[in-house]
Write a structure and sequence with these properties.
The chain has 96 residues and is mainly α. Helix content is 69%, strand content 0%. The chain has one domain.
């Protein structure tokens, strides 16, 4: 039996199995980003805050790259691109 061609709409919202995928359980990179950003916010010193911010930056960039190149659908890949660009601009604006 021949498989039907997926439409642009399906490629945008559905994964290969035909399930709609808008969100999913966070992976380790996203959980790590959230955890170190929390530490960055409540850190007692500016040095600790800056170090944890950079660790979080690396985590979110890895997550964004994974989404861009391995996302389940076009929506997830676009989300990865938007987060990647926003994070890069944030780092540039912050003075790297």
């Amino acid at each position: 039996m021949q498989q039907e061609e997926r439409t642009f709409w399906d490629k945008t919202w559905r994964n290969e199995e035909g399930e709609i995928v808008i969100s999913q359980w966070p992976n380790i990179w996203l959980i790590g980003w959230a955890a170190v950003n929390f530490v960055s916010i409540v850190a007692p010193s500016r040095d600790i805050s800056k170090i944890t911010w950079w660790i979080g930056f690396v985590f979110i960039m890895i997550w964004a790259l994974l989404e861009m190149f391995q996302g389940a659908n076009y929506f997830r890949r676009t989300l990865g691109l938007i987060v990647f660009l926003a994070s890069a601009l944030s780092a540039i604006k912050g003075g790297l």
